[in-house]
Amino acid sequence: MKHILSALLLLMPFMVFSQVNEDSAFIAQIFETALTQGKSYPDLEDLCKQAGPRLSGSLAAQKAVNLTEGKMKNYGFDSVYRQEVMVPHWERGASSPLVLELSEGSKVIRPMPICALGGSIAGKIEGEVLEVMGWNELSKMHSKEIEGKIVFFNRPMDARMVYTFGAYGTCVDQRVFGAIWAASKGAKGIIVRSMNLRIDDFPHTGSMAYSDSVVKIPAVAISTLGAEELSSLLKADAHLKVRYEISPKLFPDALSYNVIGQLTGSKYPNQYIAVGGHLDAWDLGEGAHDDGAGCIQSIEVLRLLKTLNYKPSYSLRSVMFMNEENGLRGAVEYARYCDSMGQKHIVGIEADRGAFAPRGFFIQANPEQLKHIQAWLPLFEEYGIYVIKGGGAGADVGPLQQIDEDVVLIGFVPDSQRYFDYHHAANDVFSSVNQRELELGAAALASLVYLLDKYGVD
User: Fold this and answer.
1) What is the rounded CA–CA span in Å between residue 16 and residue 150?
2) What are phi and psi of 230, to 5 degrees?
3) CA 136 to CA 129: how far, in whole Å?
4) Which one of 247, 265, 284 terminates a domain?
5) What does DSSP say about strands 99-101 and 189-193: parallel, antiparallel, or unpaired?
6) Full-model pTM
7) Each residue's pLDDT tens digit, 167-213
């Protein structure tokens, strides 16, 4: 027995080395296939051009459901199906630009581009403007200073932060809650600086909230260039007036669908590794980065593994979540249904940070599981991926952990520097996507799914 144990101990380094070589070779095949035979780029073009701006409840959203379902069926996944979910249906309608008038009556030549915030009521607003940086400043002011005015929230994203999603978090509260804050002080409308580090003339929309206990007021976003100009004009003329008109409409909830494709596992068919993105997108652009890329990359993960004849141990799912932008109902319904059917998820992965070059993965797991996954980092480094660490995974996979605290959640992290140039804006279109970056992201996700399927999470 001692001789057998000694022999095994001598063999172990060779066995480990051999396994690493095998994994490295297969991951190289994944990347080579994605870069030379990838379908991400043409599939994203189809989604952007054939479906277009697909806000939940819209005809375009239904087109996106049909299109992604069709693609997964054409790729021969073991099963492809829809999951019903009732979603909000809000339409933007028409809007005027922001027109400015100096207190002495002379008109400012340039009307400034604006857009309604998602969920805003309609309204025609005119009045003086009060510039603030947020609730901390507004809360200290007397209501008499605010009543009948239009509050202009002009706190920018923090440019000092290298990770731009952190910078986004420093100011997005004014977009979400600004209408409640301002209305509680007697304001008649709000203007919010777009969540964008770049100075340009694209207003960025996004979800905002109302409270039943506070009067609802119209809410718009102004471009970062417009915000800079408006702020400068207010410093010269504190009684400057503006006017704008928007005409959104809220309809009854509409029937829509999550779309799910699956490769069934050979050993654990009733346990799942899911990778997904959200199929809905704001209606100003084509939703290429947010989140057409994540959806198409999630489909490509399964297609790449199938193309390479990989036979998964766990069942692998590609999930197109509906209604992340203004409700998260698709994610909640997916988790609820899986829980009701006793479907156990081992891992939930979200791709919702744009179509840029892959940089790493954020992990929500216990310390032992995190260490286990971090051990794979050397396999990724030659592909420019240097980060596997603890961090937030994403909104759509979050409900999975609410029903099963043991599920590991992972967020795919591409380079973040350009994401907010396009986020929720009219320039989030297919032409802004780099083909190789998109394909590299799909390959990175497929490689991670391969390792998770092969080695599990413990």
Assistant:
1) 66
2) -65, -45
3) 18
4) 247
5) unpaired
6) 0.94
7) 999 999 999 999 999 999 999 999 999 999 999 999 999 999 999 99
